[in-house]
């Protein structure tokens, strides 16, 4: 139970490599909040987690090995969060920049496509914020966390 099946440093390296590679892949795959995940997104996430499990722990099935890898993953998450809070440039690199999806009622389809957001998803996000017509939108912004902020046009 407490005897490692792999050297501790190998578990640290494996966990680090998997974390960083997945971080880059998910960062490149677009912005989407957990609440906006489709069943396909959830399925993909579950399959990926199962697929990388052995890459992280190798032949180790000990409790200590699993806890060590979990600590490594949490450590990377904390470190990247701390670094992004310290540096605006690194924050933009790690988290991206907000992107304008709609400006004065005009939808930017290229930005929707690049972030894998359908027009239906965009319209649903507008409705959740009480906007039922794209023409009523001064601007809508895709935030770095995947949320969509909307500013209505003023009536005056």
From TrEMBL:
TM region positions: 12-28, 40-57, 63-83
Topology class, membrane: Multi-pass membrane protein
Domain YetF C-terminal: 86-155
Keyword Transmembrane found: yes
Cited Pfam families: DUF421 (PF04239)
Localization: Cell membrane
Gene Ontology terms: cellular component: plasma membrane
Keywords: Cell membrane, Membrane, Transmembrane, Transmembrane helix
Family annotation (InterPro entries): DUF421, UPF0702_alpha/beta_dom_sf
Signal sequence extent: none
Family stated for the protein in its record: Belongs to the UPF0702 family.
Name recorded for this polypeptide: Uncharacterized protein DUF421
């Amino acid at each position: 139970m407490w005897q490692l099946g792999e050297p501790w440093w190998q578990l640290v390296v494996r966990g680090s490599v998997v974390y960083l590679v997945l971080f880059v892949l998910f960062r490149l795959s677009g912005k989407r909040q957990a609440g906006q995940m489709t069943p396909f997104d959830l399925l993909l996430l579950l399959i990926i987690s199962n697929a990388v499990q052995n890459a992280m722990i190798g032949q180790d099935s000990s409790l200590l090995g699993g806890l060590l890898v979990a600590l490594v993953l949490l450590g990377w998450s904390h470190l990247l969060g701390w670094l992004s809070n310290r540096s605006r440039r690194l924050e933009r690199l790690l988290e991206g920049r907000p992107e304008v999806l709609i400006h004065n009622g005009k939808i930017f389809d290229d930005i929707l496509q690049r972030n894998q957001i359908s027009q239906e998803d965009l319209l649903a996000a507008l409705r959740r914020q009480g906007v039922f017509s794209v023409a009523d939108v001064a601007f809508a912004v895709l935030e770095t966390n995947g949320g969509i902020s909307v500013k209505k046009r003023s009536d005056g």
